Structures are given as C-alpha cells and as structure tokens.
C-alpha cells in the first residue's frame, strides 16, 4: 500500500493557536491504483455500467447499476474506465466515559469493487487516507472570540482537505484540451492483468449531517443537497434546485462582493473560506 506523506500547514496568521500544523495523509490516486491491482479483488472488479432487470422491472443495487454511471460513461472515450472514488469520514470518540479524545478520519474506496467485497473488513478495501484536525477546545481565557475560533476551525479543515485532494488536481494536467467534459485520468494495471485508462469521479462522500455541513461549508439548518430555506423544510415535493458547487465557486470569486455575499448567504453558504470540494 502507498505510504503516508507528512504535510504542514502554515498557521502563522493564526498566532493565537499554533505556528505549524502537522498532519499525515495518503495520495488518493495511489490508493485507488493499489485497490485496483489487488489480485484477490480481480473477480469483483467492474469497469462498465450494467442495467439489471427481474421480470422486466429495472433493479438498482451496486453503483454500476445506476443511471449516474451510464451518464458519466457516455462522456468518456470508448474503452475508458470510470473509477468512482467513494470517500467516507466521521468524527469518532477514542475514549468512552472518560476524557473526550476524538479522531476525525477520512477513508476511501472505489465504486468498481462490489459492495460485498468493499464491506468485508478482511479485504482491506476501505483505506484510511487522512486524519482531519479536530476542532480546538474553546477556552474562555482565549484571546479570540468563539466565533473567530469557529472560523479558524473551519478554515483548517479545508486547508487540510486541499492538500489531501491535491493529487486529483495534479492529474487534471493530463486533461485533453479538446475534451468538452474535462476529466482527470491515470493509467494502471488491474488485478486481472489488464491496463486501464481510469477516469476519476467523486462518486460519493459518506458522512453524517453535521459533517456534511462542515465539508460543504454550509450553515446549520441547511439542506446538504438542495437550496431549500430552513422555513420550507418538509415541503414535498421540493421545488428548490440541487446544490451546484461550480456556481458557488464562481460566485465566491466574483468581484461584486455585495451580490455574492447576499446570494451565497441566502443559499446557506459560509463565506469564511474557499472550499476545495467545490472544484471537484
Ligand atoms: Zn434538500
């Protein structure tokens, strides 16, 4: 398996807390290559979408039976393989009843592996790739306000994610300039002994509600999936558009600050930090 890399974030702007923040992570692209080339997984790897039917009724199960994979596959050249990255993260207590030590780990796996294999701990198909810094405990004696510390905590998490997910941007240099659907790709040998041109997509990020709020830079009482205002929660069917991270990113860097602040705030977006997940 690919080794851990040490990284450091310069915290000198935040002189009240740390100087340098050190953390360890694994390259997600190298992790995906490692998962693909395991021979014991070769019988359970899928590189193309399928439609399954029982008595004429479409059945959905594995990721490759969904419409999403078909739609993404249509954007690729013939023979190319889609590799959906699945990230998982959760903050977990390391101690029970005593102390409050927590760890916020990020794991990854790929949608090409059948869920039966992915979910079996002995196949080691879900790999830890990073540990995010837990929120610093607020102290009343601190020189900064609680609100300012919350902004810093949020900023730190996104700075760490920027470093961890940087390999996905590096691969974008392989992008074909004529490609109307820009893609990140790499070449690798699979467990079955074949070479694949693998196109990266973020297939899913599994996390609980508070964590989606942090990862997507949303204020509490927002919907992670659509732009419904809090007072309209529960309305069915919802008429509000799905969240479009590309729009948020463009607006975040919009020169007209009055317009962008008003619009992003209305959609429940925290304006305190750029979000790396908007670019993927
Ligand atoms: Zn919603």
DSSP, total strands: 9
Query: Which regions are unreliable across 5 or more consecutive residues at pLDDT < 50?
Result: none
Order of helices and strands: EEHEEHEEHEHHEEHHH
Beta fraction of the residues?
15-25%
What is the makeup of the main sheet? 5 strands, mixed
Number of continuous helical runs: 8
Q: How much helicity do the residues have?
A: 25-40%
Shape: globular
Walk me through what this model shows.
The protein is of the alpha+beta class and 280 residues long. The chain has two domains: 5-215, no CATH class; 219-280, no CATH class. The chain is built from eight helices and nine strands. The strands form three sheets. The chain has a five-stranded mixed beta sheet. The chain has a two-stranded antiparallel ribbon with strand order 1-2. A two-stranded antiparallel ribbon has the order 3-4. Strand 3 and strand 4 (57-59) form a beta hairpin. It is globular, with a radius of gyration of 21 Å. The model has no long low-confidence stretch (mean pLDDT 85). Residues 223, 225-226, 228, 238 line the site of zinc ion.
Topology:
Blueprint: E1 5-10, E2 20-25, H1 28-36, E3 52-54, E4 57-59, H2 67-74, E5 81-93, E6 102-110, H3 115-118, E7 127-132, H4 146-164, H5 166-170, E8 184-189, E9 195-206, H6 209-215, H7 245-252, H8 257-266
Parallel strand pairs: 5-9
Antiparallel strand pairs: 1-2, 3-4, 5-6, 6-7, 8-9
